[in-house]
Amino acid sequence: MKKFTIGLSLAALAAAGTAAYADGRGAMKHDSNGDGAVSRAELISHSAQMFAKMDANNDGKLDETDQKARHEARRTQMFDKLDANSNGQIDRAEFMSFERDGKRDGKHHRMGGRSGHGGKKLMEQADTNKDGSISKAEFTAGAVSRFDKMDADKDGSISKEERQAARSDRHDKWRERAQEHVAN
What we know:
Distance between the termini: 31 Å
Shape: extended
Number of strands: 6
Structural class: mainly alpha
Number of helices: 8
Oligomer: single chain
Strand order of the largest sheet: 1-6
Helix content: 55-70%
Largest sheet: 2 strands, antiparallel
Radius of gyration: 19 Å
C-alpha cells in the first residue's frame, strides 16, 4: 500500500469531520441552515465539497498524486508569503522580516500546520478496500462513522454540546496517551 503523508492525512481528517466537528471552531460554518447544529446531510454535503477540493487531479480518489499537488501548492504559497516584493526571489531582508511565529508587518500569516500524530493510521482505516487510495464513498463513510459516534442522542445532528463533549473526550484520551508515553 502506498504511504500517505501527513498532509493528506490531516486534510482528510479535517474534511471528514474529525477536527472541525469535534472542536466547535469550524463546525458552525457547516451549519448551512443556521439551526445551531450540524446535520448528517450537512456533513455529507461538506464532505463532498472537501473531497472535490482535495482531489487535485479529479480522478475520483485521493492518493499520493493529489497529496503531491497540494504539497506543491503549499510550498508555492509559503514562498509567496516570504517574497514580499513579488519579484520571484527571496532576499535576506525579506527572509529576516518574516518572523518565525508567522507575523509580518503587523499581519498574521500561517506557515506550516499541525503535527499529524495518528493521521497515517486513520488514513489506512479510511482505505477500507486497501487499494492505496481513498474513494469518495470511503471518504464519506469515514465522515459519517465519526459523525455517528459524536451524535450522542442519535437525533441525526451534532449540537454544540455534543461537539464540546467529543472535544473534551478527545483531549482526555490525548492526556492518557501522553501519560502512558511518559511512564514508558
